[in-house]
Amino acid sequence: MKKTDLDRINELYRKSKSEGLTREELAEQKALREAYIRAVHNNLRGTLENISIKNPDGTITELKDMKKKNQ
Fold first, then answer.
1. What pTM was estimated for this model as a whole?
2. Residues 32/4, Cβ–Cβ less than 8 Å
3. How deeply is 1 buried, as exposed, middle or buried, from its count of CB atoms within 10 A (0-12, 13-18, 19+)?
4. In this structure, what are the phi and psi dihedrals at residue 59, rounded to the nearest 5 degrees?
5. Is 15 in contact with 21 (CB distance < 8 Å)?
6. Which of 12, 53, 62, 68 allows an S-S link to 29, with CB 3.0 to 4.6 Å?
7. For every one of its 71 residues, what pLDDT tens digit does the chain have, with 9 covering 90 and above?
């Protein structure tokens, strides 16, 4: 997500609080928020897939390998 998109989300939020939004602006705000949530979700997923867990016996298990085993 680009900084300009985040700036626009914030701009629309401030406008919604001060004077309200048009239907087009509400649709734009919804689309931008959904894109933001997808970006955060993908970022978190990428982070979690790179985590390693050290087991009590000293072995190391990749979190992504645990996910595959549980499916």
1. 0.72
2. no
3. middle
4. -75, 160
5. yes
6. 12
7. 899 999 999 999 999 999 999 999 999 999 999 999 999 999 998 898 888 888 899 898 887 776 666 76
